[in-house]
Amino acid sequence: MAIAITIADSFDIETYDGLQAYIIAHLELDSETAAQVPTFIRKAEYRLNRLVLAPERETSVSFATVAGEQAVALPVDYRQLRNAHLVADTGYSIYPISLNELHSEWSGYSVQPVHYAIAEQSVQFGPIPDAAYSIKLTYMARIPSLTSANDTNWLLTDNADAYIYATLMQASTWLEDLDAAAVYRGELMAIIDEINAQGNRYRNASPIRLRSPVVV
Fold this sequence. Notes:
Blueprint: H1 16-27, H2 31-34, H3 37-51, E1 58-64, E2 71-73, E3 78-86, E4 95-96, H4 99-106, E5 115-119, E6 122-126, E7 134-141, H5 154-158, H6 160-174, H7 178-203
Parallel strand pairs: 4-5
Antiparallel strand pairs: 1-7, 2-6, 3-7, 5-6
């Protein structure tokens, strides 16, 4: 089953309202189903948050520990930690271990932290900090949700087709058109693979080296 999507110039698909208008027009939705499109988009975002691992999702936050307190709350948009390091002259990394290891190895110790574990919506340090240490977390953030007040985000701007196919899949499932939903899912997964592959190339990029001309 082949389903072609033609993106009409009259739809500003890189905005929340334009995306909704496109979905409604493409599927020729009646008013009752059209009212569900914001929910389809929100459900699509749940899927996109689990699967899109682009560098644009990476952000960082710095904070100071409090002497005697082991845990610091994670940012509200936190999804996955990539790195933690001490902001000091050494700038050394703080390495992850399991929560059980953290408690067994560092129970009763209070010095400069060298390990962390994620638990209870917080990052927990071992040993327990004995002073205020400035720590920088680099983490994978939640993709900003589209709303009437937040008209676009980096993913919709750069990869509107991911939003389109993810939303069409949700709408087709709602309409019980499972054949169409399967096709849209296949297209979505191909797009996500391309986005993630592009992100890996970005992270692993090396400088371009120009070869000297060959003289014959």
